[in-house]
Each structure stands twice: as structure tokens, then as C-alpha cells.
Amino acid sequence: MKRRLPALLLAVCTLLLAGCGNLFDQEYVSVTDYEPPTQESPEDEDSITVRNVAELQQALTDLLNSGAEDGRIVFDAAYSGDVNADLASVCWLVRTQDALFAYCVESISYDVSKLVNHYEVRITIRYTEADRDSIVRLQLTNGLEAKLRDAIAQGDGRLVVLIGRSSLSAEDVENLASRVYRENPIAQPREPRVSVNMLSGTGMQRLYEINFNYSMSAEELQARRDALAALEPFDGESEPPDDPALRALYACRILLQSCSFSETGQNDIYAALILGEANSEGMALAYLELCRRLEIPCQIVYGQRDWRSRCWNIIQLDGANYHVDVAACAENGMEGGFLLPDETMWGRYRWDISSYPPCRGRLSYEALIPVLPEAEILPGEGESEAPDEEPVP
Predict the structure, then answer these.
(1) Strand pairing category for 260-261 and 277-278
(2) In 210-295, which ranges are continuous DSSP H helix?
(3) DSSP secondary structure string, 149-213?
(4) At residue 182, does pLDDT exceed 60?
(5) Which pLDDT tens digit goes with each residue over 256-309?
(6) Is residue 24 over pLDDT 60?
(7) What pLDDT was estimated at residue 285?
(8) Using alpha carbons only, how large is the chain's radius of gyration in Å?
């Protein structure tokens, strides 16, 4: 009996020890502070976290620059500011203080969600139909003239230019486009009507939407461009003289042989060189092109004669400037419009003298008559016009 008691006690202790282990495993509890899941979702990867209003503005600017149609902005728990007030202010600021966004962005809307300790905002952006990739970007206005020249030569209907620093008004750009056309009229058979919409951004940032209206179809424009490109105005004529003054006279005569003047004629180079009839502007544009081909410096003047709109040219010969009114040559002979100084023009003609060089050259058509070959002197040239006779009562 004494021998059985130790064995029995050993068995009981073994069972008690095994049971205690299972009991402690079932009742042990680990308590920690709750933390939201930290695994990233696709939305988390695309979200932008901001801590202040400056970062909020940059986040919205980045979305607009990327062309995104929606985005998710997370406001850090330590965000300093009023979320709703800052959102309204930043959306207005970005759309109105950046000329590109004012042009391209139609609307910005957002939904605000309040989570445990922060805000999340879903941004929705709607864009206008503007093609952002076609917008020309310039830092300064220096390259604008070349862009206008290319657009007019190609017959483009619209040119949008964003310039970082510009003081040009919409009217300035319209005038620049007209000047670009008038300096190279052969590039386009008709001067386009130009209208400019301007948007201003912070500082001197400007966006110009420049619209060109040619009043004819693209097919007709191209046909006229092809006709002008194929034109050889001096083909079949004698070689131009070496003397610059005689070359200028040569160009004037070539034009008068192929074009007649009409007050009601069209006002473009195509009318003068292809159709054969034009008004003073059409003839002046055509003479400009002929002088350019003969390497004679020439520009067109927009002014008045007898209080009516009139166009003519100023050419430069050996450093001196002279007026040439080809339309007047057609009406009254060469003496009436070729190589005229300012003092001869004053009275009947008016122009903005601050926009054009003074014409004080000493040459005249009469002075060229003695050096012209006799065969090149046209009937009536070199003779003074007889005064109109009084009617016999």
C-alpha cells in the first residue's frame, strides 16, 4: 500500500500539470491600440497628401498640368487651415490667375469626405475643347512674329500662343498680324481678318487666341497660293537693269502692263498679278513683291489721298527714300506717282509721318529720262501735263 501511494501521487501531479497548461492558453488576451490597415490600394497610390494651402494649390496645379480629369487629395491630420474655405479659394485662384487654365479648364468641382482624423477630397475637372498640345509657348514676345508669319502662310484658321512675359494688348497683336501679312503678301492671296481674344495670368503672363478669317474655302485659298507660287512676273521680259532706280522703274512698268487700276477693284496681290485689276492697296502690295524680287527695299503706306483711303509705297535707293504711287502712275503717267519726295506729296496725300521714314531723295522720274534707252520711253513720258482748258462760253 505504501508503495502504491507515491505512484498515485505522481500520476495525479502529471495530470494537474497538463491541465494547467491548456487553461492558461485559453484565457490569455493581448490588448493593443487599434490602427487602420496600412496596406496601400490603387487609390492611395494616386492620392496627394497636403499639409497647408500652398501644397493644396500645387497639388491642384499638378493635376491640371497633367490633364487629369479626376484626382484624390488627402488633407493631413495636422493640416493648418479651413479645408472647405481653402478649397474654394484655391480653385478660384488657379482658374483665374493662370491664363492657360482659364483657357483650357471649363470647371472644377469637388466632394469632401470627413474621416476619423482627416479629410479626403475627390476632384473632378472638366476641360474645354481646346487642343492643349497645339498651344505655342513662348517665354517672351520675340518669337510671336515668326509664328504669325507661319500661320498666315499656311492659311491656319487659329493660332493660340501662351507667353510668359508680354505687354502686348489684343489690338497690338491684331496690328502685328496685319503688318506681317503686308510685309510678305505673296505668301497668302488675301489678307485675313484677324480677331484676338486675350487672357491674362499672374504678372505679365498672357494667352492670345488669334483667329484668321480669309472669307473663302481652304481649297480656293490653296488654288490661289499655287497660282501665285507659279507666277514669274519677269518671265519673257528684258533683263532688269543694274541701276537701282531703273530697276524700280522696271518693276513699276511690269505691273502697269499687267494690271489696271480701279477704285472698286480688289485689295490683294492675287487681284493685281493674276486677275489684272486692283485698287491702290492691291497694286501697292504687288509692287512690294516685285521690288522684293529685284532686291529693292520697299514698304507699303496706308494713308489718304484727297481725304479718301489710299495705299502706295516707299522705296529706298542708295540710302534715300521716295514715294511711289503705282495707281497714280496708271492714272496720270509716271511723273504723277514715281520717285516723289515728301514736299510733292503734301497737300493731296496724308499719312502718319511718325510710322514711315522721311522721303527727301533728289532723284525724279524726269531725271531718269535722259538715261533711258529711247525704246523704253513710253508715249507721253517726260512731257508736262497741259492744264485743263477753260470751256468756251
Answers:
(1) parallel
(2) 218-229, 244-258, 269-270, 280-293
(3) HHHHHTT-SEEEEEESS----HHHHHHHHHHHHHHSGGG-SSPPEEEEEEEE-STT-EEEEEEEE
(4) yes
(5) 999 999 999 999 999 999 999 999 999 999 999 999 999 999 999 999 999 999
(6) no
(7) 96
(8) 41
Angle between the N-to-C axes of helices 83-97 and 53-66, in degrees from 0 to 180, rounded to the nearest 10: 50
Residue type, 69: E
Give the C-alpha distances (Å, rounded to integers) separating 344 from 103, 112, 116, 339, 340: 52, 77, 88, 10, 6
Residue 358 burial (CB count, 10 A)? 11
d(CA 262, CA 331): 10
Please give the average per-residue pLDDT across 241-257, as a whole number. Answer: 92
Average pLDDT over residues 226-250: 87
Residue carrying the nine cell digits 531718269: 368
Residue ranges of domains in the chain: 44-127, 135-214, 228-376
User: C-alpha distances in angstroms, 216 versus 155, 177, 193, 223, 305?
Assistant: 11, 19, 12, 11, 30
Is residue 28's pLDDT more than 60? no
Q: Which is more confidently placed, 197 or 186?
A: 197
Query: How distant is the alpha carbon of residue 239 from its chain centre?
Result: 41
Among candidate residues 348, 271, 360, 279, the one with its CA nearest the CA of residue 316: 360
Could you tell me which of 105, 329, 124, 283 has the C-alpha nearest to residue 201? Answer: 105
51: its cell numbers = 499639409
Helices then strands, counting H and E runs in the chain, come out as: 14, 15
Could you give phi then psi for residue 372, rounded to 5 degrees? -80, 140
Domain 135-214 in this protein, CATH class: alpha beta
CATH code for the part of the protein at 228-376: 3.10.620
Q: Answer whether residue 122 shows pLDDT above 60.
A: yes
Phi and psi, residue 301, nearest 5° = -110, 135
CATH number for the domain formed by residue range(s) 44-127: 3.40.50.150
> What sign does the dihedral 281-282-283-289 (CA atoms) show?
positive
Residue ranges of alpha helices (H) inside the chain are 4-27, 42-46, 53-66, 83-97, 99-104, 144-153, 170-183, 218-229, 244-258, 269-270, 280-293, 326-332, 342-345, 365-368
